[in-house]
């Protein structure tokens, strides 16, 4: 998990960014200096959660998942799909991007 922010207060939102090591490696292979695609799913469960999947395109022109961005809609929202803005997407993408740099440096081997 590269980012976690619990919903500590009612006006906050739950934020989770998941990228396992294989996804991080794929991010460097398929998304570095390239485009990424976001696929959004609204209302993942009855808890007003939204899921965005960050994907790259492999050599066979197929989508490869690079990260899962999961967050809750604000508590005041009646409709889950109304719970996302470019601000929350940009924030989570930035957290994911920062974690890629840190994790890749941590995993380097010198020889």
Spell out the key features of this protein.
alpha+beta; globular
Question: What would you say this structure looks like, in words?
Answer:
This protein has two helices and five strands, in the order E-E-H-E-E-E-H. The protein has helices spanning 21-30, 86-106; strands spanning 3-5, 15-18, 37-42, 49-57, 63-72. A five-stranded antiparallel sheet has the order 1-2-5-4-3. The model has no long low-confidence stretch (mean pLDDT 78). Strand 4 and strand 5 (63-72) form a beta hairpin. It is globular and about 45 Å long. By secondary structure, the protein is of the alpha+beta class. The longest helix is centred in the last third of the chain and has 21 residues, at 86-106.
Number of strands: 5
Roughly how much helix do the residues carry, as a percent range? Answer: 25-40%
Computed structural class:
alpha+beta
Strand order of the largest sheet: 1-2-5-4-3
Strand proportion, as a percent range, falls in 25-35%
Overall shape: it is globular
Order of secondary-structure elements: EEHEEEH
Rg: 15 Å
Count of alpha/pi helices: 2
Question: How far is the N terminus from the C terminus?
Answer: 28 Å
Instruction: Name the poorly predicted regions.
Output: none
Give the overall pLDDT as a whole number. 78
What's a quick, concise take on this entry?
This protein is an alpha+beta fold. The chain is 28% helix and 29% strand.
């Amino acid at each position: 998990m590269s980012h976690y922010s619990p919903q500590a207060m009612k006006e906050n939102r739950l934020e989770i960014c998941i990228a396992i090591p294989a996804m991080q490696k794929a991010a460097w292979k398929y998304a570095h200096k390239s485009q990424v695609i976001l696929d959004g799913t609204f209302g993942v469960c009855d808890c007003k959660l939204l899921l965005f999947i960050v994907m790259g395109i492999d050599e066979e022109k197929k989508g490869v998942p690079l990260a899962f961005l999961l967050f809750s809609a604000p508590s005041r929202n009646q409709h889950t799909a109304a719970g996302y803005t470019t601000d929350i997407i940009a924030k989570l993408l930035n957290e994911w991007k920062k974690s890629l740099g840190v994790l890749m440096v941590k995993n380097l081997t010198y020889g």
